[in-house]
Design brief:
alpha+beta; Diaminopimelate Epimerase, Chain A, domain 1; 2 domains; 5 helices; about 20% helix; about 40% strand
Length: about 290
């Protein structure tokens, strides 16, 4: 049997697996089945503990459409809690290697349980080549995007993965669901893009809605919170420390002078278990669905 853990960060939920224990190939088809909320365990993605299984721990992140992500703020916090509570480390400060770079995590405990995790997410970059965004080399700040006959103003940033931030006067979930997938797949973003609609209500508070690359409309996203905070700071709308409010809850972002980003917030384990023989059989023979 293959063991797994299901956890969430503000409603952004992930399945955590150990590569050494897998009884099947983690193909895109298998990922889609595992993340399916009717036929599988159900999640916004999969976190895989890959070899080597000692610090710095190697994390691979998979979206529910089967694609692989570079970095996830909520995923990293969930993974850090998993490593501590399931016996992979007794340290409360350690490093995790992701496709989007090495990150440092710090755990805050309540007894033997990890309640809060702080992640040093690396540096934000607004340079088009780093995000990436097509066209001339530039900082992608307050540009116009034409999509389905509409025009929106956006800024783009990389925090280890690509983001497109759109400032609005009012947040509308239907607008996010309508425009989000079109922006995600716009040719301006050759590796696709995470999309955030944001409303800055104070120097220390921004409310956002999220369309996540490869996942769709999500309740929360740590890297999205970091991206929005960085863009709002770059535009002079917020101070160094800002609370990002999402449908699933709030995260605190601290911005350093040279665009270093620290993410702080809660994480919760939902349950652990083993994949059944029926599901394992389906995963071994998974085809595109």
């Amino acid at each position: 049997m293959t063991a797994f853990v299901k956890s969430h960060g503000l409603g952004n939920d992930y399945i955590v697996l150990n590569e050494a224990d897998l009884g099947f190939r983690l193909t895109p088809e298998a990922i889609r089945l595992l993340c399916h909320r009717h036929y599988g365990v159900g999640a916004d993605g999969i976190l895989l503990l890959a070899a080597p299984q000692s610090a710095p721990f190697v994390l691979r992140i998979f979206n529910p459409d089967g694609s692989e992500a570079e970095k996830s703020g909520n995923g990293i916090r969930i993974f850090a809690k998993y490593l501590f509570e399931h016996g992979y480390t007794r340290d409360t400060t350690f490093h995790i290697k992701t496709k989007g770079g090495l990150v440092r995590v710090e755990l805050e405990k309540d007894g033997d349980r990890v309640r809060l995790v702080t992640v040093e997410m690396g540096k934000a970059s607004f340079r088009s080549a780093d995000i990436p965004v097509t066209g001339a080399e530039r900082e992608v700040i307050n540009e116009e995007l034409r999509i389905s006959g509409e025009r929106v103003r956006f800024s783009a940033v990389s925090v280890g993965n690509p983001h497109c931030v759109i400032l609005v006067d009012e947040l509308d979930p239907e607008e996010v669901r309508r425009l989000g997938p079109k922006i995600e797949h716009h040719p301006l973003f050759p590796q696709r893009v995470n999309v955030q609609f944001a409303r800055a209500s104070a120097r220390d508070r921004v409310a956002i809605l999220i369309w996540e690359r490869g996942a769709g409309y999500t309740l929360a996203s740590g890297s999205s919170a970091c991206a929005v905070a960085a863009v709002c700071r770059r535009l002079g709308l917020v101070d160094e420390r800002v609370t990002i409010q999402m449908p699933g809850g709030e995260l605190t972002i601290t911005l350093q002078p040279h665009w270093g980003i620290t993410l702080h917030g809660p994480v919760s384990e939902v349950y652990d278990g083993t994949l059944s023989a029926d599901l394992l059989e389906a995963l071994k023979g998974a085809r595109s669905t």
